Amino acid sequence: SHISIPTFQFPVFPSSLTIPMFIHSQCFRAHNVPRSGSVPEFPLCAMQLQAHMHAAASTVSCMRRSSLQSTFSINPEIVCDPLMDFNVWSSLHPINSSGRLDPGQRLVLAATRVDSHSFFWNVAPGAEGSVGSFVALLAAAQALQAAPASPRLPRNVVFAFFQGETFDYIGSSRMVFDMEQEKFPLRLENIGAFLELGQVSLRNDSVLWMHTDPISRQNESVELQVQDVLSQLRAASLGSGLSLQEPSSSQPLPPSSFQRFLRARKIPGVVLSDHQAAFRNRYFQSIYDTAENIGIRYPEGMSPEEQLEFVTDTARALAEVGTLLARALFRLAGGAEGADGIRADPSTVTKLLYGFLINSNNSWFQSLIKPDQKGILGPFPQHYVAVSSPTNTTQLLQLVLANLTGARVNFSREECQNPGKTPGAQPELYEYWWVQGPLDGNSSSRIPGCVRSRVRLSPALSPAFELRRWDSREYSTWTESRWKDIRARIFLVASRELELLTLALGVLVLLLSLLCTFLINSKAALLFGIPNDSGAAGY
Fold first, then answer.
1. For 77, left (φ over 0), alpha (ψ -120 to 50), or beta?
2. Model pTM?
3. Which terminus of the chain faces fewer neighbouring Cβ atoms within 10 Å, N or C?
4. For all residues of the chain together, what is the average pLDDT?
């Protein structure tokens, strides 16, 4: 959506407030709509919107002002904040979060983006832009975790969900930075293969395109490894219902997180997408990139619970992508036999699509969250990265991935919430969540439990702010201004002639009042009988 980039000299507001817009439409119809073909007569209906932004000029200016305020003021007034959140990552085999992998250990990294964007703040449905991709990766993670031979795979598989990718790859650049600074359990040299899901929800004739980097492939060693990744993908596509094709060998990569990794190290990798060159998504980074844009339709008359369970054609198509990805990851991780039995679950995919695009406040998501996280559920989920973290999308994604790939353990609530004090919990390898669980039959009570998983969070704040290089050309420097409350008022506007007449009368009254004040003050003694000063009187 290229209109998000230029600077407009006038404000633009979206409105989802039903009552104020109803009042405005009533006012508009009553005063502004022409009658019998004639020009509408004054007074006319008008609306005034106010939204004062504190930040100005650029990130460098607003961050400098905020820094000075924080340094010298007791009550600092921050004018802008850097965009930030958390990446969500998990692994097939446990990884010590406080340690470092051996440099010689190789693994497979499967990644996608989480966030989206549009012309309007916090209105980012991102159905094709991000949701379809991370839902397919979630389905692949579940399918691979459930494969009987997965625990015996010689290579580990890491799943990464990057936040802030819309704004110059905040999440992926931070993960690369942390790997280089040894602030992350993995190193760049540990990555033996990289698979990324781009936009995959709008396929044409079940075709997915395998994009590679022509520059890194000029290296003979990387070229051989890329060819191996491509051959494993082709083998995994047999029987999956998908057809894989390659664009021209000279065609550069599409916009992808993989590019941030390639800038640091030549890594063999492939980006899967539904487009050969130009995006098939007409509503990329738009408020119209909704569930309808990727073909999600429900029969009329269905209740929300029935829609949650209804397997749509889109869910089946994305389950095929999840199946392909899970089988390819299994092969790349060293799996010899059993890949054909791996299959993503369409019913899980349809629930994920409903939860992340239609209504997250559904019975399935309610069973996956902690008892104190009810506030993150609601209709019309948005996937903007924001400045307060973790966002609702990140928290939901973390819990969904934990429940899909983790396991229930027989821990009490106290043991689950304090794994460091629980014998055998191994908190350096696992995370624990005390979740609400499903409803107990027809009652309103739930069956809570403890979920153990390898899902973790890592910072998705641009290294530019970590290094205080606010004018960086290497890393993202996007910030968001702080603002006062957005307000609106509706009123009637008089005609130009009436306004000028009112102004003229006001000026005339002012002049007359000044003249009267002068005359009265000059004749005060005569008018009010003020006695002359006859000197001091003694007694």
1. beta
2. 0.89
3. C
4. 91
